[in-house]
Fold each of these.
Amino acid sequence: MSLVVATFYHFFSFADYAEWRSPLHSLCEEHGIKGTILLASEGINATIAGSRSAVDTLLTYLRSDPRLWDLTHKESTAPDYPFDRLKVRLKQEIVTLGQPDVNPNEQVGTYVSPQEWNQLIGDPEVTLIDTRNDYEVQIGSFRGAQNPHTHSFRNFPDYVKTHLDPQKHPKVAMFCTGGIRCEKATAFMLKQGFQEVYHLQGGILKYLEEVPELDSLWEGECFVFDQRIAIKTGLVAGSYDLCVACGYPISEEDKASPDYEEGICCPHCSDHLTPEKRARQQAKYQQSKLKKTKDNK
């Protein structure tokens, strides 16, 4: 039986967010749900996996609160849990931009559906920006999109201030994995004086789900923050693995590199691997192999 992987977020005034942690954790544990749920005063952000009935139970519970009656979510499937455990965490922000005056509840850019996205980004006056981090952009993006080369979302405001100008870039379109980063990114850009700011509704995940491969302008795969690592059109599993040392997505080509050592390092981190860290990684790798051997007995 395949499991349902559900992602959702919702910005709203959530003053009592800390009080939700315990009951949410208990509900998820009771129904065998794994994944991560983030709670903050600005809203909720989650990616979870469980049986069909378990995911439906959680969503019904959330939507029973009047503030979350219109909560939307995206779904895909996985043959097994893509997460090792359940985490329900209290945070300052549900997606960290580090700009406390930016509030998506006050203003955001114009949503563009996956079906209308191709037409928008085909407009030569539109500046297309990938708001994700560099390692995500490297394995796939929309044709012609700018890569801000950020290491974290906190770097995005600096990129906007140094590379974009409301006078020179009157139309800006942005996208991210599930849509949440663009909520804050578009709100930030509107505060900076940009007039026409658009974002892909539902993010890359919704686009890959709804737009046929023949019509798709997406190139490569989409990094996801679970054990599937990456997905492709139709939300099927991609071809990447994850380096356990640095967390960078690695391809079959990376594995063929002399700088790749399974469980130790990859071409993206081998140059920075100290003897001490190599020893730690080797010990961890041996422990994981022993655990797998015991589990398979």
Amino acid sequence: MSGDVLTLHATCVAVEGRGVLVTGPSGSGKSSLALALMAHGARLVADDRVTLSLRDGALWASCPPAIRGMIEARGLGLLAADALDGAAVRVVVDLGQTEGMRLPPLREVTYLGRTVSLVLGQQGPHFPAALLHYVRAGRRE
């Protein structure tokens, strides 16, 4: 593991062990997207603050100990969640940007020298289900 560590205002869940890092400004829906993914079987890694580091060559997301196992649900408060210790990040979802293309190009983002896939935020009830499928099965070109 490298000594490089980065803490982001973000949320992370894992789908079958694959990390989905959700970024965006305050109020953009990071926790809401995470809760939607968790309702379909994803596991919480971290909500509100995510610590990124390098582990075995991969970008690794984990949670600061003080907030482990908690996720905010607006209007309900802090909810308990059975959290994972961490996950290798496979895709980043940027809710600070909205996807305007029907068939967007492959996008990437780099943290701590590691490049991962980037998906821009989308409106509509299909997005969490489509994102789950993207993480599980990948994308065809």
Amino acid sequence: MTMERGFAKFAEGSCFIKIGDTHMLVTATVEERVPPFMKGKGSGWVTAEYSMLPRSGRQRNQRDLMKPNGRSMEIQRLIGRCMRSVFDLEAMGEKTITLDCDAIRADGGTRCAAITAAYVASYDAVQYMLRNRMLKRNPLREAVAAISVGVKGGQELLDLNYDEDSTAHTDMNIVMTESGRFVEIQGTAEQEPFAIDTLGRMLKLAQKGVNELIAEQKRVLEL
């Protein structure tokens, strides 16, 4: 796993993350406006867009030129929700941070990698706003990261790649904050239903992975 901060020269914040053979580029753009439904509320907004390059995966994907497909819509809404969970939107004023998340190489866990890199990109975007006196105080409350877990052959696995994910009996995506609170738990039994003790082991394994990711975020951000 590596994270490269400031990968995109002209973005207010960016992070290029590599976790195994999944490589994601996330850029953060700051705009002094909010969507129409937020106008006049004195509050900011954090949103995301997600896409996979045509040959990021094993087959060519069609580009989302006009409208994102259902999967992309679901993932970008997830990323936006997760990032907003660690922001004090009122402290932003009427400003928007847009996170563009692009899969360069996809081998499972792209949404988790995107969320993890989005925090680094968001942090730098906030620092840009603070330096330019666009904010009175820091709206970022804490770090957030995401990891996948699953069960294959009766064994719990952390950070599944494509082959493991496609054949797992159970797979989950877990999003957690630095303080150890859950933002999102997405889990499905693909074959046999799983017991509550299995769920407990998967959550503990996910927490271990998230803690490692947050430690790397802090190292990259020099915190």
Amino acid sequence: MSQALSGPPYRGRFAPSPTGLLHAGSLVAALASWLDARAHRGRWLVRIEDHDQGRCVPGADQAILGQLQTLGLVPDEPPVWQSRREPLYAAALLRLVDGGWAYGCDCTRKSIAEALAAQAQQKARHGELVYPGTCRHRRLSPAQARAWRLLSTADLAGTQDLTLSWQDRRLGAQRQNLTEAVGDFVLRRADGLWAYQLCVVVDDAEQGITDVVRGEDLADNTPRQLRLQQLLGLPSLRYLHTPLVLGANGEKLSKQNGARPLDLDQPLATLQHAAAALGLPDLPGATMADWLAAAVRAWASQGLRRPSLMA
């Protein structure tokens, strides 16, 4: 087993969105986070990320919890639902607004594209335009604001680029110029929905999470979350981003590109397939409990380093 470091005890989590059932890709993330918690003698939590109710499938939350239980991945504490935590997000946004780091914005996608074109910039990032800072100093009232954004600069004047560095336990040293790569990002959308970045930071802190294990496609979110942790005075976390499971078209396997729900008729075989995607060897175990115990030992032997946490 890995030795515990000084500091807060390990607390990890798996945070699925109930937009459908778990599939092979989401199981890889779930299994990795469970194994990492068990290998460090920590606690493993499940959080249902249902803040965007319009995308959620009725009953999918309970179905996901049932899938995890069938696979032997049972949380150590009762699950929580983001849709029940709105006051926490509102309080965090108010702190950022009061500190001058968050501001109201009334831009549309069309106006953002026009502003970028006027600056001879047409760069898109993962399908999203990098915000040009149009509303930074307009001081819109809450009634005028369509959305709320966070300054991506190192200073309140908006003149100094902000570069963030962190150590991913699998990917190694990471670095991003948040100002250039992302721009001032949304905290609350024009339709009133809370942005994922704010929700996840507030939830992780409120639940005492110390370690985040999730898919590599979410690694790009890390600098935005680090910045929010800094500005809200929250603890920093350790991050480990797992390999992605790809579909037949070479893209990340997801509900959007036809990923099938997990086959739970043979739960042990389903777990073994996920373990192979994580690079674990063939493991012994006639029962699922025996196999999971062997998987924990195999995960611990990989030597994925956990750097010390900084408050």
